Amino acid sequence: MPINIPKQLPAREVLEKENIFVMDDERAKSQNIRPLNIIILNLMPEKEKTEAQLLRLLGNTPLQVNISFLHTATYESKNVSKSHLEQFYTTFSDIKNRRYDGMIITGAPVELLPFEQVNYWNELKEIMDWSKTNVTSCLHICWGAQAALFYHYGIDKFELPRKCSGIFHHTLHDSKVKLVRGFDDEFFAPHSRYTDVEQQQIVENENLKLLASSEEAGPFLMISKDEKHIMITGHLEYEVQTLAEEYERDTEKGLDAYIPKHYFPNDDPSRKPSNKWRSHAHLLFSNWLNYYVYQETPYEWE
Questions:
Q1: Would residue 239 be called left, alpha or beta, if left means φ above 0 and alpha means ψ between -120 and 50 degrees?
Q2: Known active-site residue 235
Q3: 48-79 burial, b for 16+ CB within 10 Å, e for fewer?
Q4: Angle subtended at Cα 178 by Cα 207 and Cα 101, rounded to the nearest 5 degrees
Q5: Is 173 a catalytic residue?
Q6: Could you give the C-alpha distances from 246 to 145, 198, 266, 269, in angstroms and in order?
Q7: Which keywords does the record carry (predicted)?
Q8: What CATH number should be reported for the domain holding residue 98?
Q9: Closest CA to 50 of 84, 73, 83, 24
Q10: Would residue 104 count as lying in a domain?
């Protein structure tokens, strides 16, 4: 089944070339189906790339999904045109009286700042508080996961000695949880961040369950005991070339960039990496939409 996105969204052309099933409002309205309404708070700087990455995964399920995009009102991104934001995005004040079946909060390039020093932190706190009663299930990615762990459960992040970047081996801890149905006992996933959270704090928190972790990259996948919040510290949505683009960007900026671990063949940036996480990315998003959104959300919000 398709995802329903604005007809003129640039990511549409990318997805259609990959045979991802998308539709516009006209066709969606002709179907007598209760679609899922998903709101994506996109905090990533290159918003159009993130849109395509997430829509690719949300569009590969048997459910019709209406997608809306949210950006912060207290900070305007410098890497996307104002016209793009005006055409495809809304702000919290416009949707705070609505209900959504699911919400995704992306990562953001502000990891090295204390949460309280992020210029849109108060706005994000308001959105996360609103989500408790207005959203059935929330999926938090990378910095978005760390923000959720801090706001909802009091678990703070800490700075790493060097950036955690690469494709890392992970171990599944509980295959019986619906979110990881179909997962292999061991799998790969990309990480790209400067901070981490203490795994022991997650294990000891009575409101959280650790589902997967990596010896090199730390805790990876967590779910709240009430199953309302899912936190992913990595980037399963990344395309195969994303880490290479980040490495090239950091190198060009003169930063102390390290070659992403276990990514380029023989650690040679001139060689093309391969995708080792695509199937688990699709499986996680499919499981989330099915078991935690579609199966749990009311047909009609009160």
A1: beta
A2: yes
A3: bbbbbbbbbbbbbbebbbbbbbbbbeeeebee
A4: 75
A5: no
A6: 20, 25, 19, 12
A7: Acyltransferase, Amino-acid biosynthesis, Cytoplasm, Methionine biosynthesis, Transferase
A8: 3.40.50.880
A9: 84
A10: yes
Task: Write out the binding residues for substrate.
Answer: 163, 192, 249
What is the tally of structural domains in the chain?
Answer: 1
Of 71, 111, 123, 142, which one is the catalytic site residue? 142
Q: Which pLDDT band, with edges at 50, 70 and 90, does 28 fall under? A: low
Whether 169 contacts 188, CB under 8 Å: yes
Band (pLDDT 50/70/90 cuts) for residue 36 is very high
Asked if 164 is an active-site residue, the reply is no
Single-letter amino acid, residue 258? Y
End-to-end CA gap in the chain: 27
Residue 118 dihedral angles phi and psi, to the nearest 5°? -70, 130
Q: What is the pTM of this model?
A: 0.89
d(CA 271, CA 40): 34
- Exactly one of 71, 140, 235, 280 is catalytic; which is it? 235
CA–CA separation, 227 and 216 (whole Å): 27
| Least reliable range by pLDDT among 68-77, 117-126, 184-193, 274-283 | 68-77
What pLDDT score was predicted for residue 77?
83
CA-atom Rg of the chain in angstroms: 18
Does residue 34 lie in a domain region? yes
pLDDT of 4 reads: 74
Catalytic residue among 48, 51, 111, 237: 237
Confidence (pLDDT) at 263 = 98
Q: What is the pLDDT of residues 63-111, one digit of tens each?
A: 889 999 999 999 888 888 889 999 999 999 999 999 999 999 999 999 9
Domain ranges, residue 74: 3-159+196-239+278-294
| Three-state secondary-structure class, residue 84 | helix
In this structure, are residues 172 and 187 in contact, taking their beta carbons and an 8 Å threshold?
yes
Rounded to 10°, the helix 278-287/47-58 angle is 70
CA distance 275 to 156: 31
Is residue 175 in a domain?
A: no
Does the residue 189 lie in any domain?
no
The length of the chain, given as a count of residues: 302
